[in-house]
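Per reviewer request, we include the raw input and output of the structure prediction for the construct analysed in the revised manuscript.
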Amino acid sequence: MKKYIFKTLFISSFIIFGIIIGNYKIFPYSLVKKIFRSTIYDLIYNLDTNVDERIWRHSWDSNIFYNENDCIYFEGNSFQAIIDNKDQVPDLKSIYWDTTTIYGRWSIGIYQGQSVFNLSEPVKIINPVITASDVSDCDAYFVADPFLFYTDSVKYLFFEVWNKASSHGDIAYAESKDFINWSYKSIIIDEKFHLSYPYIFSWKNENYMIPESNNDLSVRLYKAISFPDNWEYIGNLLSGYNYVDPSIFRHKNKWWMFVYTKNNQQNYLNLFYSDALIKGWTPHPKNPIIRNDLSQSRPGGRVIIIDEKIYRIAQNGIPSYGTEVNAFEIIELSDTNYLEKKTIKNPIVKKGDSPWNSFGMHHVDAHFINGKWVAAVDGRNN
């Protein structure tokens, strides 16, 4: 009995010590943080809460519990092992360990290059250009998933802000005159559920946005009433499932849209098409386009069309979420068939030497502007 009491007191003291160190950044914070996280993992894997010898965790950028080696949720006095099944996922207001730098776990940068397959950090731009510390209208954990929109005089970034108060993502924007100096403006879309990946595009002189809203079991379409800060919800393009990172484009008088989905331990890339933007979306007969391949199944930014060649941008989630971004050339696209191949020059972005993206990158929105490619990207620092 004394043995178990001693073990319980030791573990409790260690956890409390780790939380105090984490909250107040007491010296030697970085060393203690590393030891604390490592030891917590060891403790976790010896608990009876394992599911199939794995701990299921909550993804920061969606409401999915999964077992990639990022962070672990803690609720009450126990670590949670939750099966990735919608009916068994509680609405947690959980504590997460602060393992980030001053930038937040994700931050936003600008890359440039003569080719979309040869992007790099420009000398004149100091990345990251937007971080969590720039957000002025909420206490933000990170910023991510940037999409670029530009006119001759103003450049805009639309992106996810992870709001600590609501424990989900909102959509915000920033402005620049030159791609170099950016000014954070405000959150512009705040729903009761998680939003991210604000895919902005224009059609018939109107500006639209499709943010990810998988917690709402929908793909939602918004229209700018007064650009850039007033958006109206128009309706759902798809409903009834956890659609992640919807990526829309137009080809041969049709609309096409990739969406990523998960079901228990399975993951899929699906394709839908429609003659009209607002309605009539039909699943492609070749669905799923990709099955159970985290190296290419999840969208990672805007679909790019160069000289009538279509490139699908995809995250590489191996060995962990947010590793790098690859491009795939679509070589056949019709309402009856789909074929693609991986481009030779991959990855198009990957982890860098700077602190803000030293652990990986998972998003590219590239545009050809004034004779060169300019891309909004994000970087992961832990």
